[in-house]
Amino acid sequence: AQKITQTQPGMFVQEKEAVTLDCTYDTSDQSYGLFWYKQPSSGEMIFLIYQGSYDEQNATEGRYSLNFQKARKSANLVISASQLGDSAMYFCAMREGLIYNFNKFYFGSGTKLNVKP
Amino acid sequence: DTEVTQTPKHLVMGMTNKKSLKCEQHMGHRAMYWYKQKAKKPPELMFVYSYEKLSINESVPSRFSPECPNSSLLNLHLHALQPEDSALYLCASSHSRDTKISSGNTIYFGEGSWLTVV
Question: How far apart are CA B18 and CA A22, in angstroms?
């Protein structure tokens, strides 16, 4: 079974508008972490935001926020006020908390975001 | 700026060559990773070192040979590669155990090494 599912292969958004990138996950661990990364065409994997399963508040980092719905096992990324520089591939990822599995990091298939001027 | 440094950024090698990719981090992390990424695909885990010991090998062919000389350095030795091994190779590092602190569990990536096998 897929650990991380991103159902949107590509998205378009108008500059200055908000956009939501979807991510659902599958784990039976009580302790886990969810991540979003941005990968521009240069290749670097840029860390955006992290949500721990034990965090009660949704994570926010500047224009990025993570809409964490634990019961639904979803961790959607919201980008507010999109900028042209936000055009990139976005990956949702998870690591589980158990020691034997902690260093296995699961990626979704990615969403290619294009910001239109 | 990333705190995980990878060299070289670009590498072109023949199928009979021996080369190495290098990775360095100074964040005190004790887990280091090699990932391989093909175009338009997510990164695929190759190896994980935890406390300088190989803890995960995802059935990677022996023409890829990892090495962790110390807690800050990670190498990937390449020998007799095939053209299909051409890809972006990403190094990453993190704490090796659940820190129970949100920011402590993040995995940080380097800028990657673009490898072309001819």
Answer: 42
